[in-house]
Design goal:
Strand order of the largest sheet of chain B: 6-7-8-3-9-10
CATH architecture of one domain in chain B: 3-Layer(aba) Sandwich
Helix content of chain B: 25-40%
Number of domains of chain A: 1
Distance between the termini of chain A: 24 Å
Distance between the termini of chain B: 37 Å
Largest sheet of chain B: 6 strands, mixed
CATH topology of one domain in chain B: Rossmann fold
Number of strands of chain B: 14
GO molecular function, one term (chain A): ABC-type transporter activity
Helix content of chain A: over 70%
Protein name (chain A): ABC transporter
Largest sheet of chain A: 2 strands, parallel
Largest interface: A-B, 23 and 32 residues
Order of helices and strands of chain B: EEEHEEHEHHHEHEHEEHEHEEHEHH
Keywords (chain A): Membrane, Transmembrane, Transmembrane helix
Strand content of chain A: under 5%
CATH superfamily of one domain in chain B: P-loop containing nucleotide triphosphate hydrolases
Pfam family, one (chain A): ABC2_membrane_2
Structural class of chain B: alpha/beta
Pfam family, one (chain B): DrrA1-3_C
Shape of chain A: globular
Radius of gyration of chain B: 23 Å
Oligomer: heterodimer
């Protein structure tokens, strides 16, 4: 199958990139360090869920580092090949442009899944020998959710990469999106919460301030991820509102991540289909 | 049946017209040489055939399929060596061929194919470390995957040394003997003469000539150059030669007389020299070279020989 051939080639190519190697090393070291540092004192035990759900891993590491790695690894997926000329080699073979865009999405996501998996396996060993009780199911599930978050950002970067004609625009887009979704979002979240939740939404909007804030939170892929991952780790995901969020919020967060997975590549493809190479 | 059929194809980039109202038919089984100087529109035409670019006007059919709407089906049956490509630096030669095989859904031995294009010993090396000539061989190998019905080769000999260029021509011949149609572009003319059934010459986005090599030669005047080795030729005898019917130029440096003339004037030239008391020791004839034909069609026919020699050097410089 054509898409599979492109994805496989792209995976083989991307996993050999020095960038990916360096970013993986940083990720593995940081996750290991956090797991080592948050180890409880003598005589206490910490569950895996508590560890993963802690702000250290969920906020500081996963939701900043994973989007960054995904954007760096994927921003050049299509436009980089277009600039170098290897896209001509790729499209000389019987692949449609849709095969290229979605093959890239699958291939680059798989390439990032490697450091994510490795990044969590090493700490799992550290956790297993320490006083921490390792729950394999929770651990594996969390890794998969992290890969889903990575895939959403790969999708955004690949979409951008397919839509633009120059590497510079793709880098600019990737950096811009990272700052929008990670540091900027983090900075405005608290003031927005005060403004909308306490002060209420502007009168011309048909929804309440609470709802508006929830919507803004869902739109950001890292926001949706935090909702799902938090519920999953505390065992409350899709458990009928036993956790911090209701079922509808959980479903909405999932739907939002899936939308990020599909909409940017489709928009990018729409432009790419019309482009002269 | 036509392997390639272009009807009224025009491609404009802004106010630059790269290809203008191009009609071209290449029959199945033909080896067609697509000639022209750089920037004449050859690569744009090939890019239309592969759906890398869309024509502003007109219609292109490849293997009786619409080159734009059915591009994937076209490329399933076509092997391509594109122009201005890059290989995947981090992947080995073998992985490149394996990728082409997986893409075309064919089983085969990548090593046998790499051997055929002469880089079997580099199969496990990363293609980023290949020389330009080796990359060209690798991509030719990828184009041959699955015995395609049509081969489209854009400047296939660029980057190849004379041995490599010869091997390229042998492969083109072998593919044509197998029954494949071969369409290749070149500005290195010797390439074309040796392997093509027919050629088309592009100039400023238009096809200015389309014929067999023989036909082109006739059309260009069919003149030959006669080089006569003599003991000593005086100016009055050379004047007598110059005055003959069918002779356009004659010059002597004492030991040799060089004459450009129609082919049926050669015996008269020799006779006139001997009548003038000049001893003819030897003579050779050279047919009008394709280079001359090419310059004739691309509008450079008045260029003096020194300029042409420079142009040759430049061609080699580009292709080296």
């Amino acid at each position: 199958m054509s898409l599979e051939a492109v994805a496989r080639k792209d995976f083989e190519d991307a996993v050999r990139s020095r960038w990916l190697l360096a970013l993986s090393a940083v990720f593995v070291l940081l996750v290991s360090a956090v797991v080592y540092l948050v180890r409880p004192g003598e005589g206490q035990t910490l569950t895996t869920g508590q560890l993963l759900g802690s702000l250290y891993i969920r906020d500081a590491l996963v939701t900043t580092l994973v989007p960054l790695i995904a954007l760096i690894v994927a921003y050049g997926a299509v436009v980089g090949e277009r600039a170098s000329g290897s896209l001509k080699l790729l499209l000389s073979l019987p692949h449609s442009r849709a095969d290229v865009v979605f093959g890239k999405l699958v291939g680059r996501t798989a390439a990032i899944a490697v450091p994510i998996a490795v990044g969590f396996v090493l700490p799992a060993f550290i956790a297993a020998v320490g006083p921490l009780r390792l729950q394999v199911g929770v651990f594996v599930g969390y890794v998969l959710l992290t890969v889903l978050l990575a895939a959403a950002f790969v999708a955004i970067a690949v979409g951008f990469s397919a839509a633009v004609a120059s590497n510079r625009l793709a880098i600019g887009g990737a950096i811009g999106l990272f700052f929008l979704f990670v540091p900027l979002w983090g900075a405005v979240q608290f003031p927005l919460r005060l403004y909308f939740v306490v002060g209420g939404a502007p009168g011309w909007l048909p929804i309440s301030g609470q709802q508006l804030f929830a919507a803004l939170r869902l739109i950001n892929p890292t926001g949706s991820f935090k909702i799902i991952a938090g519920e999953f780790v505390s065992g409350a995901l899709f458990a009928g509102g036993s956790g911090e969020f209701g079922l509808s919020m959980e479903v909405a967060a999932f739907a939002m991540l899936v939308a990020w997975l599909l909409v940017p590549p489709l928009l990018g493809l729409w432009r790419f289909e019309r482009a002269d190479l | 049946m036509a392997a390639i059929e272009l009807r009224g194809v025009t491609k404009r980039y802004g106010d630059v017209t790269a290809v203008r109202d191009l009609d071209l038919t290449v029959e199945e089984g033909e080896v067609f040489g697509f000639l022209g100087p750089n920037g004449a529109g050859k690569s744009t035409t090939i890019n239309v055939l592969l759906d890398f670019v869309r024509p502003t006007e007109g219609r292109a059919e490849v293997l009786s399929l619409d080159a734009q709407a059915d591009s994937v089906a076209v490329r399933e049956r076509t092997g391509v060596l594109p122009e201005g490509y890059d290989v995947y630096d981090r992947l080995t030669g073998r992985r490149h061929v394996e990728f082409a095989m997986r893409s075309k859904d064919v089983d085969g031995d990548p090593d046998a194919l790499l051997d055929r294009v002469g880089i079997a010993d580099a199969a496990d090396r990363k293609a980023g470390g290949y020389s330009k000539g080796m990359q060209q061989r690798l991509v030719l190998g990828m184009a041959l995957v699955g015995d395609p019905d049509l081969l489209i080769l854009d400047e296939p000999s660029s980057g190849l040394d004379p041995t490599g260029a010869k091997e390229m021509r042998d492969i083109v011949r072998a593919e044509a003997d197998r029954g494949a149609t071969v369409f290749f572009s070149s500005h290195v003319l010797g390439q074309v003469e040796a392997v093509c059934d027919r050629v088309g010459i592009m100039r400023e986005g238009q096809l200015v000539a389309e014929d067999s090599i023989e036909g082109l030669r006739d059309a260009a005047g069919g003149e030959e150059t006669l080089v006569v080795t003599v003991d000593a030729a005086d100016e009055s005898t050379v004047d007598a030669v110059r005055a003959l019917d069918g002779v356009s130029t004659a010059a002597s440096d004492g030991g040799t007389v060089t004459v450009t003339c129609a082919s049926d004037a050669k015996t008269r030239v020799i006779a006139t020299l001997e009548e003038g008391g000049v001893e003819v020791k030897d003579f050779t004839t050279e047919e009008a070279s394709l280079e001359d034909l090419f310059l004739h069609y691309t509008g450079d026919r008045d260029a003096d020989p020194a300029d042409r020699a420079d142009a040759d050097d430049r061609d080699e410089g580009v292709s080296a």
